């Protein structure tokens, strides 16, 4: 988070508009809903998986998907806000540090409440999974093609 905030000027400004922006925002909405459900059922390991690890993986995928265009400033700040609130029940001291020192928010993260989310778009989630699986398959096929030595045609002896 400190590195991203230090390089804040390199982030793309304006409203989230690209496919990668929409997928990342949808992944945040899914993480919020799944983490809330896990906490309600006292499944703390699942809550940590959804609210931290899966959200980190979504951010990493977003960074790769954005490429040279850069990540959206507003979405990255929303990500930091959401992730801080989601892990607060498990890591309250860390969440308070991030809330006050890095995000420069007033008050306590405990009193900030649960993050709001839009209804997750499961069709977008499925479409992105298909796209990511296709990319992985294409890379494997390309790597296989590049690693196989080419056979030279045999000369016919007369």
What does this structure look like?
Keywords: Aminoacyl-tRNA synthetase, ATP-binding, Ligase, Nucleotide-binding, Protein biosynthesis. This is Methionyl/Valyl/Leucyl/Isoleucyl-tRNA synthetase anticodon-binding domain-containing protein. GO terms for molecular function: ATP binding; leucine-tRNA ligase activity. It comes from Microthlaspi erraticum. With 158 residues, this protein is mainly alpha-helical. It has a single domain (2-6, 18-127), classed as Isoleucyl-tRNA Synthetase, Domain 1, CATH 1.10.730. The chain has helices at 2-6, 19-40, 44-66, 73-87, 92-102, 109-112, 122-147. α2 packs antiparallel against α3 and α2 packs parallel to α4 (73-87). The longest helix is centred in the last third of the chain and has 26 residues, at 122-147. The radius of gyration is 21 Å and the shape is elongated. The chain starts with a helix and ends in an 11-residue tail after the last helix. 22% of the residues are buried.
Summarize this structure briefly.
InterPro entries: Leu-tRNA-synth_Ia_arc/euk, M/V/L/I-tRNA-synth_anticd-bd, tRNAsynth_Ia_anticodon-bd. GO terms for molecular function: ATP binding; leucine-tRNA ligase activity. With 158 residues, this protein is mostly helical.
Keywords:
mainly alpha, single chain, nucleotide-binding, leucine-tRNA ligase activity, M/V/L/I-tRNA-synth_anticd-bd, aminoacyl-trna synthetase, 67% helix, 7 helices
